[in-house]
Amino acid sequence: MQFGDVKFHFRWMPTLLLALPIPLFVALGVWQLDRAEQKREQGRILGQRAELPALELGDPIADPEALRFRKLRAQGTFEAGGQILITNRRRAGRTGFHVITPLRIRGSDSRVLVNRGWIPAAADGSPVAAPIPKGEVTVTGEAHLPAPPALALYSSPEAAKDWGRRWPYLTLELYTAATGIQVQPVVILQAPDTAGDFVRSWPRELPKADMHIGYAIQWFAFALIALVLWLRLSLVR
């Protein structure tokens, strides 16, 4: 095939190096577009779930993932003996703690952990007072599934037992192993309008589709570059 003073000349080496990867790049781009659509659907479902009426906690939770972002309500009594603090929580340039307290649900032996909010650290690094309400209370808030950081050092149950009352992060498995207290597989992020000297501002991290769109554009660009190079190396004067 000839185009003016140049003609197409098939070559095996450029084809093996450039033309064959093109379908792979295109497939990866399409896969990233599909992932972006999945994230949009997840965001839509989570947004709808957040608008549902509060779910009363009582019976054991079979599928905690189905409660992510769902409003929860629990009645019971806070147990001071199981309270821990999550350290190095920063807010407005200040270092502080998240206060985690187990709530024994009324009429059962079931407990759920409640993140009662953020408190600042004093000048010596110790936490300010975090009084625990006496008697039976009603707690409302959003369901949260805590996860360890990407790089978690000393994350065994034995290490968690040595953390005492101040923990670097929280997972429900570590809490149960270290304290012996069985808890529901979710944490309640206590509602911001609840009384008490705590800061309660819970950013909602919805799935992000834009990242996958960017990846798809990159893969399609790689495919286009490979195609142009293959054509350039296959055309001769």
3D structure, described in words:
The protein contains 5 helices and 11 strands. It is an alpha+beta fold and 237 residues long. It has 2 domains: 2-45 and 210-236; 70-190, no CATH class. The strands form 2 sheets. The protein has a 5-stranded mixed barrel with strand order 4-6-7-10-8. Strand 1 (2-3) and strand 2 (6-8) form a beta hairpin. The chain starts with a strand and ends with a strand. The mean pLDDT is 83.
Briefly summarize what is shown.
This protein has five helices and eleven strands, in the order ββααββββββαβαβαβ.
Secondary-structure element string: EEHHEEEEEEHEHEHE
Radius of gyration: 27 Å
Task: Say how many strands there are.
Answer: 11
Tally of separate helices:
5
User: Regions with pLDDT < 50 over 5+ consecutive residues?
Assistant: none
Total individual domains: 2
Secondary structural class: alpha+beta
Residue share in β-strands: 25-35%
Report the span from N to C terminus.
12 Å
Average per-residue pLDDT, rounded, comes to 83
Task: Based on Cα principal axes, name the global outline.
Answer: elongated
**Portion in helices:** 25-40%
Strand order of the largest sheet: 4-6-7-10-8
Q: Summarize the main sheet.
A: 5 strands, mixed, barrel
Furnish the topology, listing elements before pairings.
Elements: E1 2-3, E2 6-8, H1 12-19, H2 21-50, E3 55-56, E4 71-78, E5 84-91, E6 94-105, E7 111-120, E8 136-144, H3 157-161, E9 166-167, H4 172-179, E10 187-190, H5 210-234, E11 235-236
Parallel strand pairs: 3-4, 5-9, 7-10
Antiparallel strand pairs: 1-2, 2-11, 4-6, 4-8, 5-6, 6-7, 8-10
Helix pairs in contact: 1-5, 2-5
